[in-house]
Amino acid sequence: MVSFPRSGSPRLDGERCVAAISPLSTCDACIAACPLDAWSLARYQPELDETACDGCGLCIAACPQEALSVEASVDVRRRRSGVFAMAACIRVAPSDAPGTIPCLHALGYRQILALRARGIAELHVRSAECEACPRGVALGESGGSTIDASVSRAAELCVARGERPPVLHWPDSREWKRLVDRSESFDGSASSRRGLWRRLAGGVALEGIVTADRARDTERLVAFSPAIDPARCEGCDICANLCPTGAIRPVNGDGDGDMAYVIEPGSCSGCNLCVDVCNVDAVSVVGWARARSTRVTLEARKCMSCDADFHVPEEREGVTLCPVCRRRPHQSPYHPIVLD
């Protein structure tokens, strides 16, 4: 059994965690990613058993909302040809060496994109044999992404946006030393190495990484794309009000035209909270798709049973009751109506 020095247990930001935001969330990404079963769901939000956690950080790459962080980061350096980053797993580097992280596979595509957004296109990494490491074995069993897959995924998104893709290098120990000797530490493009390791590049949120203004009206490759089925949507606004990244947002019509739900696929983190809270299955999220910004136009109506104002997609003709009255076992005695 391979043992690891503890690098500190992950910290949970409850304001970002969708399981903490809503008890209807089914997100269990951190639980599924943990090789030691240190995460569990308690009181409607993830709970960590710090005695079981070894600080591997695999849950950080898995979290769609980047709600987890540990005390570690990559080493950002500068040489004549530009800025690059270095990271070594704790099995091949001293725990206090710059750029030492618990596990290379804790660098997910979101963290790679965050580095790229800071102008860092080259990542040099070292690790021991992952096949002989319990963390590597657990990653394969859980279906998580390796660092190679994460960099490839981030590169595909960058290419689709017309940006230079990140490149992954695997230098040997001699090349590693040469890189260190011929460069200097640089923190002008990323957060301090002593800072919290969440996004690894200075706190760039996913919605900030994806430049939605670029080719807004054309289909572009995105990691996740939400959609609303107007034929099923009841216009309750819950998905739009709870979306933590603004991938689905309501427009009230005071300057942007008609009332609508505006969908920005490039901002979606893939947390699926919108799917979880919709009780009519009108919302869906697909991964790795080409999508464009869309609008679901809403039409204002007045409930024939309770006189309440409500709105539904304009495609839904003949809807005369608000969502509440449609679920009531009986109609209002003050406004009798006949239903077909």
Explain this structure to me?
The protein is of the alpha+beta class and about 350 residues long. It has helices at about 20, 30-35, 60, 110-115, 135-140, 145-160, 175-180, 205-210, 240, 275, 325; strands at about 10, 40, 45-50, 70, 75-80, 80-90, 100, 120-125, 165-170, 185, 220-230, 250, 260-265, 285-290, 295-300, 310-315. Helices cover about 20% and strands about 25% of the residues. Strands 5, 6, 7, 8, 9 and 10 form a 6-stranded mixed β-sheet that branches. The protein has a 4-stranded antiparallel β-sheet with strand order 12-13-15-16. A two-stranded antiparallel sheet has the order 1-4. Helix 4 (about 110-115) packs across helix 6. The longest helix is centred in the middle third of the chain and has 14 residues, at about 145-160.
Poorly predicted tracts of residues? 189-197, 199-216
Estimate the global geometry from the Cα principal axes: elongated
Give the class from helix and strand content and strand pairing: alpha+beta
Biggest sheet layout: 6 strands, mixed
Q: List SSEs in N-to-C order.
A: EHHEEHEEEEHEHHEHEHEHEEHEEEH
Number of helices: 11
- Tell me what portion of residues adopts beta-strand conformation: 15-25%
Helical content class: 10-25%
Number of domains: 2
Distance between the termini: 69 Å
Mean pLDDT score, rounded?
Answer: 84
Radius of gyration: 24 Å
State the assembly state of the protein chains: single chain
